[in-house]
Amino acid sequence: MKRRSYASRPETLDTLFQGRLAIMQRRDGYRFSLDAVLLSHFVKLAGHEKIVDLGTGNGVIPLILASCNPSVLVTGLELQDSMVERAERNVRLNRLEPRVRIIRGDVCRIEQLFPPRSFDLVVANPPYRRIASGRINPDREKSLARHEIRGCLRDFIRAGFYLLPPGEKMDLVYPASRLSDLFNGMRAEGMEPKRLRIVHSYAESAATLLLVEGVKGAKSELKIMPPLIVYAKGKEYSPELKTILEGNSR
Questions:
Q1: What is the C-alpha to C-alpha distance for residues 124 and 130, in angstroms, rounded to an integer?
Q2: Whole-number Å distance between alpha carbons of 72 and 64
Q3: Which residues pair with 104 in a beta bridge?
Q4: Domains of the chain and any CATH numbers
């Protein structure tokens, strides 16, 4: 991820995929992380999908999916006005207006925003810290994105269940330390875990992230994929990560 910094401005212009995708972000506010890139890579597309990203932030996941897959239509749902505005600018910056739209709305009130079963695929990078877990960041963009202040994991899964027809998929990224919460929440809301990829910083280190695909109303059977290793040594990305970040993996 290349970063261009402007000392006199509150935002930076970051690029992905060797400059093919540009993302405006607040310098000191919420910024997308590798989680979003890995989730976008994890998604399996058959073409012509209507996709919704719940809690889209700066819009990076819709931008990645639309830029790599010219047949998809992607909606980004975001609660915070500041990030809705920034995500809309990012859509225009990348000339993806015909296929990406950003909507302001609350995941917890999903029925007021969309009809049931109105998407083919749901993706989400939900807030991962409980209210009582750790210091809540004083920056509102960061705190709402990281802590379950305005929506918990179950709220996101429940919204995904509402938005999908039976048999369709929801893809999520979540901390490895909360695997039991994730699987229990998915099953409680009718979203059966069917595909799992575990992310490690190094081959010999403990897991850090989970990439999980659930299928609405499916029977129990989980496919565990080979682990995804971020670093080969030191701060050098693994060959797979380099390929993903270059945008050559689809």
A1: 17
A2: 11
A3: 78
A4: 2-246 (3.40.50.150)
Section 117-133 average pLDDT: 83
Could you say which DSSP state residue 108 is in? G
Q: For the chain, what is the radius of gyration of the CA atoms?
A: 17
* Residue 22: pLDDT band with limits 50, 70, 90: very high
Give first-to-last CA distance, the chain, whole Å. Answer: 17
Q: What is the mean pLDDT of residues 193-219?
A: 98
The residue behind tokens 């875990």 is: 193
Band of pLDDT at residue 147, cut at 50, 70 and 90? very low
Strand pairing category for 223-224 and 231-233: unpaired
State how far the Cα of 53 lies from the Cα of 40, in Å rounded to an integer.
Answer: 10
Closest C-alpha among 182, 164, 144, 122 to residue 57: 144
SS (H, E, C) 146-182: HECCCCCHHHHHHHHHHHCCCCCEEEEEEEHHHHHHH
Both structure tokens of 5: 């910094």
For residue 235, give the 3-state DSSP assignment: coil
Whole-number average pLDDT of the chain: 89
Work out the average pLDDT over 204-212.
Answer: 98
Res. 58: pLDDT tops 60: yes
Burial 43-73 (b: 16+ CB within 10 A, else e): beeeeebebbbbbbbbbbbbbbbbbbbeebb
pTM, two decimals, is 0.88
Other C-beta atoms closer than 10 Å to the C-beta of 2 total: 12
